[in-house]
Amino acid sequence: MHRPQPSLSARAARMALIGGCVALPLAACSPAVDVTAAKDAANPACAPMMVALPDAIGDAKLRKTNSQATAAWGDPSLVILRCGVNVPGPTTDRCVTVNGVDWVIKEGDPVWTLTTYGREPATEILMDPDKVSSATVLADLSGAAAKVPAVRNCVGQEELQNLPKSQ
């Protein structure tokens, strides 16, 4: 039995449809986020944390970045992470502990900077608390940040009151 060949226009329409379906996922991809690498981004201690980062923070999906030891979530980016930033020294800035990881919080307007405390290299997170909850960000990222071992911890008022008096 002889099957009629599809007309050229039907074949072209089918190829265009297939080509459109293949191109669609490519068009849906966001470009890499431009993030400046931290000074110590090449530190090997960043690697275990980077491979442990979550695929999403809340509803914001992980995106590709264009520099080492960086990450971004959301389109547009709601959370930016950089490993290898300067390690914070003693500070009077607010420090919170989330899942065993200490974070120094600097509230900006509108961007907050959250930096691990007592871990070398340090990790910095930039986020806008009006667009994503800092509690969600820290809860979702503390597991990965814990891959960089702690060498110090934040000290609160209670610990300061218990220090021996100098003579």
In the predicted model, the low-confidence regions spanning at least 5 consecutive residues are: 6-28
Q: Biggest sheet, strands in spatial order?
A: 1-2-3-4-8-7-6-5
Strand proportion: 15-25%
Q: Radius of gyration, rounded?
A: 24 Å
Major sheet summary line: 8 strands, antiparallel
Shape: globular
Terminal Cα separation, in Å?
Answer: 107 Å
Total DSSP helices: 4
Helix proportion: 25-40%
Please provide a written account of the structure.
The chain is α+β, with helices and mostly antiparallel strands and 167 residues long. It has a domain at 46-152. Helices cover 26% and strands 23% of the residues. The chain is built from four helices and eight strands, in the order H-H-E-E-E-E-E-E-E-E-H-H. The protein has an eight-stranded antiparallel β-sheet with strand order 1-2-3-4-8-7-6-5. A hairpin with a 2-residue loop joins strand 5 (94-98) and strand 6. The N and C termini lie far apart (107 Å).
Brief synopsis:
With 167 residues, the chain is of the alpha+beta class. Helix content is 26%, strand content 23%. A hairpin with a 2-residue loop joins β5 (94-98) and β6 (101-106).
